[in-house]
Amino acid sequence: MEQKTVVDLVTKGKRIDERGLESYRPIQIQVGLIEKANGSAQVYLGKSKVLAGIKIETGEPFPDTPEEGVLTVNAELVPLASPSFEMGPPSEAAIELSRVVDRGIRESKAIDLKSLVIQKGKKVQVVYVDVYVLDHDGNLIDAASMAALAALANSKVAKMEMKGDEVIEKGGHHQLPLNNHPVAVTFAKIDKTIVVDPSLEEEQVMSARLTVTIDKNGHLCAMQKGGLYGFIPDELKRAVNLAVAKAAENRAKVMAAAKG
Amino acid sequence: MEQKTVVDLVTKGKRIDERGLESYRPIQIQVGLIEKANGSAQVYLGKSKVLAGIKIETGEPFPDTPEEGVLTVNAELVPLASPSFEMGPPSEAAIELSRVVDRGIRESKAIDLKSLVIQKGKKVQVVYVDVYVLDHDGNLIDAASMAALAALANSKVAKMEMKGDEVIEKGGHHQLPLNNHPVAVTFAKIDKTIVVDPSLEEEQVMSARLTVTIDKNGHLCAMQKGGLYGFIPDELKRAVNLAVAKAAENRAKVMAAAKG
Amino acid sequence: MEQKTVVDLVTKGKRIDERGLESYRPIQIQVGLIEKANGSAQVYLGKSKVLAGIKIETGEPFPDTPEEGVLTVNAELVPLASPSFEMGPPSEAAIELSRVVDRGIRESKAIDLKSLVIQKGKKVQVVYVDVYVLDHDGNLIDAASMAALAALANSKVAKMEMKGDEVIEKGGHHQLPLNNHPVAVTFAKIDKTIVVDPSLEEEQVMSARLTVTIDKNGHLCAMQKGGLYGFIPDELKRAVNLAVAKAAENRAKVMAAAKG
Amino acid sequence: MNKLPEPKQPEKLIDEKGLRIDGRRLDQLRPLKLEVGLLDKADGSAYIEQGKNKILVAVYGPREAHPKHIAMPERAVIRCRYHMAPFSVDERKSPAPSRREMELSKVIRESLEPVVLTDLYPRTTIDVFIEVLQSDGGSRCAGITAASLALADAGIPMKELVAACAVGKIQGKMALDLSDAEDKYGDADLPVALVPNMGLVTLLQMDGNLTTAEFEQGLSMAMEACKTIHSMQRETLKKKYATIKDAVEEREEPEIVA
Amino acid sequence: MNKLPEPKQPEKLIDEKGLRIDGRRLDQLRPLKLEVGLLDKADGSAYIEQGKNKILVAVYGPREAHPKHIAMPERAVIRCRYHMAPFSVDERKSPAPSRREMELSKVIRESLEPVVLTDLYPRTTIDVFIEVLQSDGGSRCAGITAASLALADAGIPMKELVAACAVGKIQGKMALDLSDAEDKYGDADLPVALVPNMGLVTLLQMDGNLTTAEFEQGLSMAMEACKTIHSMQRETLKKKYATIKDAVEEREEPEIVA
Amino acid sequence: MNKLPEPKQPEKLIDEKGLRIDGRRLDQLRPLKLEVGLLDKADGSAYIEQGKNKILVAVYGPREAHPKHIAMPERAVIRCRYHMAPFSVDERKSPAPSRREMELSKVIRESLEPVVLTDLYPRTTIDVFIEVLQSDGGSRCAGITAASLALADAGIPMKELVAACAVGKIQGKMALDLSDAEDKYGDADLPVALVPNMGLVTLLQMDGNLTTAEFEQGLSMAMEACKTIHSMQRETLKKKYATIKDAVEEREEPEIVA
């Protein structure tokens, strides 16, 4: 890869894979691949590939929120996905990825945590969102965000009730109710140009990164700037407005795929 | 040590310590050395030395087996025992050792886990088998397997009952009932020859290792192949049959020592 | 810093900062800086600076002491405080520091652990003493010991009671009762001379270190020898007697500051 | 504890016709699907579906050893990680490696070592990453089958492909390639890896209860199955190379024509 | 679970006069106190109080990279640790770094990088240690404000000081510099770091719910506040150097006279 | 929580005749057994039984430092690990090192350093591994006594052997070498290590409650006991060398005769 080429092209309004500056790579979404999960989805974003699996289990609420279920988002950058990923405890990048995906879901109130209570203060349902990166060709945040949303929209929950001290299944399942559909849109700043959905080659030359997560009402629910440089206010405002449009496009694809 | 010598001898049907190919080094077993343990045994296998201690404590069952007690086997390759053992979390070798010993005990149903329940789903007895390697001169699996069996056969359990919410001792002890007596027999492949009970010198030149654990009925209850090469089917069949005979001999020694 | 100078001066009965051999550096104590803590105190010992914060929370007793609350002392040598402190799990030095401070408080019975029980065997108050080193210019043990004592003397506890299964606040607070006021006094052996309250420069040339913790009755409640050399019995006896006097002086300062 | 009801214990594992709960005969493999070369970043990759097992394997290397002190002067070091995704099993698994995963990583590595020509690449590492996306009994064997394809896909010189398959005992009979439920309620499990032409068994583990005769029968069944799988592995690689050849030829033709 | 009663949810976050629970206007900063150079061992240090936040920052470096392999041949590596004391929050926090602390350490480092002339010190590290002694909403921003002073105090060449401040939404209105209670019961939080003269936003995070218009309003409010804080930072450094200059001149005068 | 009933609190720790629960006088040591050279792989080893303490010590070194960066250019680095077997105490102990074990490892190392001629072996490590197989009060002291024998057995040059013993206070009186129950229900514990001929105290810790007079009395009692133990240590080494010498001479005699 010629770093110089990527930058040169972008300054001319072009990209190395011939996309427009404001275009995403092709997005493919499959749901339900993991039968043992309550829900699952695999997203190809160009050659990036992310699998998200949802597990919903009985557990205990946090002591300070006895009337809410628990949402846990975790991301694994397994070394299978990239020569730059290493074995061992989660890296800074993996933690950032999981926390940005988490914020989108949590802050948009996509999951009604109150509906996950089985017995107040004692037993609740715990929703685990596990993001598994399988091939890293850039912009993992958007791929992970879409995979998580599709997997949640694909999830079924067993009906539970208390019988004495124990939680038992009533029999039957229902769709996990989703109140919102947050979608992350990520931008890279390359030289003085802003592009959407950076590929790995572009990430390697970008000076800064901005993620804007948009909910189904077109509101912002999460943002995250990354990278060793910054943005000027005009860039931020343009990015935010573009994010609203792009999120709507991508959300439509995700929700269509989730319905199957 | 001359690696070549060890191999040369073996190809001539001899061994560096003058044993036969199918002979064990001398086995010495002492039980009850650790008064604070429920049971204990020290095994010398040649110059290898392994101490096993049993602790039986009150704990909780696993959620998916509410009607069973808990068996936990752990092995420590403490750096006191060999210049090749390091401080820190358990190595791959320590984990393999503990898991092979564990499988022998668990799969032969040596301990009746159901008999360890104090109150179903709430309180059970937990049997900790801790294998402590003190001197590493080869074939730790067999030494550990015999030490664990002797220590279990040497173990006493306090009688427990529930009183309200609490577990209390009824007073008195009984022998931990053992339904089976699994014994591991390990082979090494050196050049094209199979020897039993490899010493450290032999382990350093072996191409592959095979452990066969035999229960008191002469049945197989665990196997584990190790090392960077493999076995042909005939070697495996011969080893399995030889293991049955060798296990019977060693079991007799262990159970005799355990009775005191 | 000239190591030789420090030693030379000491052998002449002088110190590099012009103190006497048996003199402490200036001690300044402020309490209550951390409003979110139950109690807090910051101690300057010369240029060494240590902050201690107390948190008192509801928790469970240890199974073997169902009728006692819990005392936990932790010390953090955060890398902000010295170029020699590193990130990561607590170092040997941090563990020793916390354990010596812990022993002083625990062995002098400064806190009546029995008074911390809310419901026997189920719910107790847990007293966390967190020692935070902010600037390391030597003799952290004495600075930490005084900071911990001042913070405890500054602590308020919410009144708690059981209501059914739950612990609730009755409303109101009271002063954490302190039965004793342990103070650590640390000596360094430099060449053949014993000095009190070693600075960092002195610690770097000392051959051994001795801490003597004295309670309010003038009794010893903890001792700790450190460093790669030793003490002769006469040195120990002199140090112990001097510690009684020095502890009384410092205790007066701490308790005066704690009252505000 | 679990979200979807776990499979209940079936009344019988073998019916009166001698068929198993999923309708298979005792000596029948589960449906098997193999693919190679599906990951972009890895030097080699393979994917296996065997029953409900879904396993992805990537190979990186030979590459510079990192950290350096693990390098060996006279050969490549193979490293292997068998790892399960948190959602791959009935009850969510912590992503931190368990003791079981560490043991399996070791024996899988030792099952692959005999065929890799490690002495061609001194001072390097060859990394084999096995990710179990869904687990269904026999995942270590499926992992080996796929790992050996991924090594081939990475162009690592090997004497031969390693194939693996487990045999078990259910209701007192030896049965090939146990599924999750059969493994859970069965009497023994015997995973085997074979280098068919060398006739070399490079993985062998066992737990449960077997007579020596049952062991011998099981070993033969497993070896036969490994040979079948071996053919499928070779077929998979052939198809891949044919596709590449076609692609290359297609692309090259115009040039030749021009 | 907690020792002292946590702040209860107030009935309203803004009263009929448009004032907040602590009496501030919507565009008003909390009381802010800045100090530099208070640690003896660190190469540079700073302290900030902003509301009840009490944060101490030390800078060490440029110094030899340790471990060596993290060094970069063409520039200094900035490392940053944002860490909370166990007693800094309502419920005691374990001293082991949490995932939140690890994320904030990353974004804070990335907010400082753009101003530090790292290429002057190849092969070294510059370590920024931020210790939150008491936390009260907006601690990451307060940490950045103090960190940039500590870098200046350490004599690290920078293009300009970075200033940071959060804006939030409470009761449907954008409000500057949220306190703990406002953060907890408010609707959104938007922390911003600004390099004022370059006009560069180097930290930007958001959580909650904002329209694009609210975002733009919030961004402007935050940038204005950053400029105010920037003046205070410069003032603080000036005072420090004046003090040093005075001290030096006082000491030097006799010599000159003599 | 425990398997076998723990020792109950005895009614009195000293009876009317001035004897302790195990029948000892106040100034009497528990039965003490010392052995050296019992491990095959270690460079030196020793075993001690003191009361119910059963402790094994191995010494490795001087050997190449690993990892290298811990080596010191002008002397050997002594490393020490005091570690308890999971079954060594009443309630099973996790094998991961506790904070107590880490502290004791440090003070034990510092008690041995003063006698070892570390400057003879620059750039190496000398590793002392103390494994407590059964613990019964005073295990750190027993560990030091054995460690110093193991160092001698490894042929590490030392100025002198270190001996160690604790003194405690029970029922208001100073008593030598407390057992578990005395330690648990007693009033103070004062472990001491002594280099007898140098008159140097190299380990000193204390917890409980002592007047300065009690401390001085206790220190004297401990030092006397250390001297006794020192003689036993020397005796043990002598016997060992005598045995070796005999063995050598026996073997050599025929040669000389021949």
Topology:
The complex is a heterohexamer, with three copies of chain A (260 residues) and three copies of chain D (258 residues).
Chain A: H1 3-11, E1 27-31, E2 39-45, E3 48-59, E4 70-76, H2 92-107, E5 117-119, E6 123-135, H3 140-153, E7 156-163, E8 166-175, E9 183-190, E10 193-196, H4 200-203, E11 208-214, E12 220-226, H5 233-259
Helix pairs in contact in A: 2-3, 3-5
Chain D: E1 32-36, E2 44-50, E3 53-64, E4 77-84, H1 99-112, E5 124-134, H2 139-153, E6 163-170, E7 173-176, H3 180-185, E8 188-195, E9 200-210, H4 212-257
Parallel strand pairs in D: 4-5
Antiparallel strand pairs in D: 1-2, 2-3, 3-5, 6-7, 6-8, 8-9
Plain-language structure description:
The complex is a heterohexamer, with three copies of chain A (260 residues) and three copies of chain D (258 residues). Chain A is an alpha+beta fold and 260 residues long. Chain A has a single domain, classed as GHMP Kinase, N-terminal domain (Ribosomal Protein S5, domain 2), CATH 3.30.230. Chain A is 27% helix and 35% strand. Chain A contains five helices and twelve strands. Chain A has helices spanning 3-11, 92-107, 140-153, 200-203, 233-259; strands spanning 27-31, 39-45, 48-59, 70-76, 117-119, 123-135, 156-163, 166-175, 183-190, 193-196, 208-214, 220-226. In chain A, the strands form three sheets. In chain A, strands 1, 2, 3, 4, 5 and 6 form a six-stranded mixed β-sheet that branches. In chain A, strands 10-9-11-12 form a four-stranded antiparallel β-sheet. Chain A has a two-stranded antiparallel sheet with strand order 7-8. In chain A, helix 2 packs across helix 3 and helix 3 runs parallel beside helix 5. Chain D has helices spanning 99-112, 139-153, 180-185, 212-257, and strands at residues 32-36, 44-50, 53-64, 77-84, 124-134, 163-170, 173-176, 188-195, 200-210. Chain D has one domain (32-89, 99-244): GHMP Kinase, N-terminal domain (Ribosomal Protein S5, domain 2). Chain D is an alpha+beta fold and 258 residues long. In chain D, helix 1 crosses helix 2 and helix 2 runs parallel beside helix 4 (212-257). In chain D, strand 1 (32-36) and strand 2 (44-50) form a beta hairpin. Classes of the chains: A alpha+beta (260), D alpha+beta (258). The C-F interface holds C 63-64, 90, 92, 95-96, 98-99, 103, 106-108, 210, 215, 218-233, 236-237, 240-241, 244 and F 1, 91, 99-100, 102-103, 105-107, 110-111, 113-114, 190, 195, 198-212, 215-216, 219-220, 223. Strand 12 of chain C pairs antiparallel with strand 9 of chain F.
